[in-house]
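Supplementary notes for students who missed Thursday's class. We covered one full example, reproduced here. Read the sequence, then the structure, then the short commentary at the end.
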Amino acid sequence: MRQWKRFRKTRESIQRGKELFNLSDKKLDEIGLLAPFKFNLYELVLATLTAQIAFKIFDFFCPWSQKAEEIELKTVFGKTMARDAARLIDGFYFLLTPLLPPLILFWSAWIVSRASIRDEDLTQLRLWRSKRAYYFYNGAHGLMPQTLMSLGFIFRSRSQEYEVLEPLWTFLVIRSLLFFSLFYQAYVIYFKIPNLLFQLNGYSKKEFRLTRHRQRQLNPPPYKKYVLQVFGWNATLSFIAKYALPVLLAVAAGLIAFVEVWLRSRLGMLRQQNTGWATH
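Structure (token representation):
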């Protein structure tokens, strides 16, 4: 509980505009705040757990699991497997699916910090400060959208995996939640955080105008570089997670099922030997 109180205090300090990234980890610990890496890690865990708890509450009142019992369980590949293996994959998938959105954004610290600095201005000190600042900003401003994204991903994966025919209102609510969370997170990662990082690195704030007449910026930020690199990085990680995760889960389930069959066979052989010795 003490660490979670520190998390809340750190988040409130960042949202009030305090530049905690200039302080060392030791100094932050002395004043009762979390270091940037640990702070963002706590945010990742909190977003994932909150999404899972919210889904469990929803599933209690609208139990999808009972509907799923009436149909044949399938893997993410759509092929029928043994029921135990399918349930194993289902459990792993439920644990890992809500973790993916915050985890991908957590891994983006290096590329975001580098993309927020022009190539000619890139130094180790600026890169270090930008990376620490990103951990703070992502943890403070990304908690809500990442929680909603995780919850939306759970609903989406559940409905696809079990092929449950959803009522129209459920379909609309889930899709609305998913699209809203994606737009919210896009605002945070492509507008809110880069503007904070640009100002940190001495650039002008990125402004969007509907008219052609734009005020000339004295020190324009590398916004195009930021969008291209961050979007490309996140898209690549999302693609890998989408197609690599099912393969890894299937392999893990296969290995566990193999070990279980081997252990049962060994136990059966031992029982037969014990029975034979007892008769003699």
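Commentary. The mean pLDDT is 77. Residues 84 and 257 are 8 Å apart (CA to CA). If anything here is unclear, bring it to office hours.
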